[in-house]
Design a protein that fits this description.
The structure holds two protein chains of two kinds. Chain A is an all-beta fold. Chain A is built from no helices and eleven strands. In chain A, the strands form two sheets. In chain A, strands 2, 4, 5, 6, 9, 10 and 11 form a seven-stranded mixed sheet that branches. Chain A has a four-stranded antiparallel sheet with strand order 1-3-8-7, with no helix packed on it. The N and C termini of chain A lie far apart (40 Å). By secondary structure, chain B is an all-beta fold. Chain B is 0% helix and 45% strand. In chain B, strands 1, 3, 4, 7, 8 and 9 form a six-stranded mixed sheet that branches. The termini of chain B are far apart. The interface between A and B is medium-sized, with 24 and 25 residues.
Chain lengths: 124, 110
Amino acid sequence: QITLKESGPTLVKPTETLMLTCTFSGFSLSTTAVGVGWFRQPPGKALEWLALIYWNGDKRYSPSLKSRLSITKDTSKNQVVLTMTNMDPVDTATYYCAHDCSSPSCSEQGFAYWGQGTLITVSS
Amino acid sequence: QSVLSQPPSASGTPGQRVTISCSGSNSNIGRDYVFWYQKLPGTAPKLLIHRNNQRPSGVPDRFSGSKSGTSASLAISGLRSEDEADYYCSAWDDRLSAVVFGGGTKLTVL
């Protein structure tokens, strides 16, 4: 059974750096074709992809946020960490992590498993 | 502004069939799989369709996906009140090296 859970501060101040941790179980991030992605949804707005890290260490970032984002993995701890610098009130959103499988051999490709999400508020 | 284009809203009555369109380009839908997600308020997104037209286990066959060229669509038949949600299409964009989404379509069951 695959599960993911996001953790981090609920409130950050403008200009601060946000660090979010995705702790998962039921899969290994060293398995070929597996990845973990981060997403967010501001209140009343659309879902947005932020970053993705693959089993082999490859990383991809949203072009519009690339300069502010960093994604890392700790395979031994089953964790993926997303760091976002220079937080602004417009970054207030619910942040999600999700499991990705990108191989034709996967029973389900795409982001089939999601964490419950964590609401991050940016305010002074 | 989203890379993929969806209508902001759609509606139907119980039992009806509704379709939601998603338009992209040759760098995303035109060359890679399309995925559809259902988003209910306060809950995590749910994968409804993967590989253009495949349903994950547990997704009712009332939901179906299709793709042609640089466009895709999600069809929901036998509309039910619990289908009222936001629906997002998504694909990999090879030019951007990024996961891209549509702006979402809010489905209202009248």
